[in-house]
Automatic annotation (TrEMBL):
InterPro entries: PGBD (IPR029526). It comes from Spodoptera exigua. This is PiggyBac transposable element-derived protein domain-containing protein. It holds the Pfam family DDE_Tnp_1_7. Residues 80-198 form the PiggyBac transposable element-derived protein domain.
Amino acid sequence: NTRSSGVWTAPKGNQRSIISFTENPGLTPHLRFSMCCESPAAFHKLMVSDEIFELIADCTNKFALEKIAHSNEASKFARLLGTLIKNRKHLPKTVISTKLKKGAYIAKESTDGITVMKWRDKREVLVLSTKHSTGFHTVTKRGKIVSNPKIICEYNRAKAAVDSSNQMAAYSTPLRKSVKWYKKLAIDLLLNTAIVNALTLYKNVTKKSIQIVDFRKQLLEHLCQKLQEPEVLVRPRRIKYVLSKRDGMVRVARRTCRQCYKAIAATMGSKIAKNKSQKVITYCEQCPAKPSLCLPCFNKLH
């Protein structure tokens, strides 16, 4: 039930006072100490737990905004601000039905501090807030000073981070039109939302600058390594050496056996080795230099 516990009246500023939330001062140093050298995959793993997905689902559900705001336990939640769809139940009818000119607004506020405002700039915008009443800010727009509601100014300032996140997620996005909606939802959470959050945390902890496309590539390489099959080592085939004969006349084709020459030259000298070494017409065709070899030396060498 989204019915307000109070009555819709003219805005009076009944919003409850709030306490600003602060970051745990020990969290960032802990992550910098424990994960400063971790890969992008380690940061992405932090983002895919069930608890994180539950928070994402709760905090991005647009239709839950009114339900939480109108709850009797609204004081336990942080202040809420967001846009509304005009056909939702239990909204003040005067705000919904009134036609506005450019720059005009109409607002109603319940006794428990919930403000519903409709304001028209280029088009009508319907917003709900448990933090603001009907205050205005002066802003510079295209060189002109204009007055905008505080609700709209803070909503645009907060939504800028969402727009930046959506822009980052659009680079090399895995989403495709042909994918069914429930598969697309899972892909978007795992490979867009989680990656953008992991990249932000990675930059904050490691102080390294990296583009989201390169971050995706490193994560993909890490995931693919787990699926690779171990390489099977194949022994190279043993070369089959063949003793061949040189073409031509025997007295012309004969050469000194290289191995015989080396053995004799080592003990008696090169002059004696040249005369005593066996002359053959056979050679090893598979060796790089194709040396002349006699049959005994060929068998010893190969």
